[in-house]
């Protein structure tokens, strides 16, 4: 078993205890446009306390380096050989609860998108763990993609946030009962006006919820250089979200593309990740920090030569082939499960999607697989 999975096994025991488009020629820009994400079992007991030895500090800001290095596993979760005949699995969201890892992710096949769930107790079981396709739950059939899972502690209820042409969610009192998800409901009545005004040829997608002690915030992207944020009082969630504002903007759409994550890594300390498409046409992550979820956001590692995560700062240990040059849509392994999205900033571990560098074809047919990277230059 490689070292990264080994570290996750240890993590399990802890729980149990200038613009690129303008500089590149037209045929490259056209190829980059093809990368759009176009459409793109247990009890119902609430989780135990999220406070563990790995929880973020609640007093002082934990250290984050100004540059990052990572080590990756090979693919850990791939499509099943079944009647679904999937091309890829992507966009994972993950929590550790009640002795098991719970994974929600997107299924991709010829431009058709859906969701699935799987769980396992150790990462060595991840590849063989069965899938439950969530179109068999109240979530139903049709376009569903890019899930985010969290436990909303004030209501003692699990939320699965995803896109279905709108910003949608379903709820479930028991995360380990995949058939128990409710039918989709929407956070907005339709696409917000500010998104309509800025989306251009992009797509509105990749919703992300994070709450503090007073407000819940909803982030989304438009594949056109804008990151949006809206808010509602904690007691009103999931209703009453305000009209979004632009939280971050870049004139090069590919540098601020999609798949945002926002985490609390210490008291009044937040980390924002956004996926970009590089000058080499590969996916990578930029990062920012702030003392508030509402911003403003300060660049941390946000350039190709100093990326948060990119092919030039991810190593593959001996015995692990360099199976991907894309580090794309995923989620950090959290120190809890609730709406505050807390992470431990020491030796961060990220669950991501990658694919064979030689793969070609339509976006919906690309062979995305799920893997882990572990930070190797932690400051703590």
UniProtKB/TrEMBL annotation:
One Gene Ontology cellular component annotation held by this UniProt entry: extracellular region
Highest taxon of source: Eukaryota
EC number: 3.2.1.55
Primary location recorded for the protein, binned into one broad class: secreted
Protein name as annotated: Alpha-L-arabinofuranosidase
Pfam families in alphabetical order: Glyco_hydro_62
Protein's UniProt keywords contain Calcium: no
A GO BP entry: xylan catabolic process
Disordered: annotated segments: 45-67
Provenance organism: Candolleomyces aberdarensis
Stated role: Alpha-L-arabinofuranosidase involved in the hydrolysis of xylan, a major structural heterogeneous polysaccharide found in plant biomass representing the second most abundant polysaccharide in the biosphere, after cellulose.
Keywords: Glycosidase, Hydrolase, Secreted, Signal
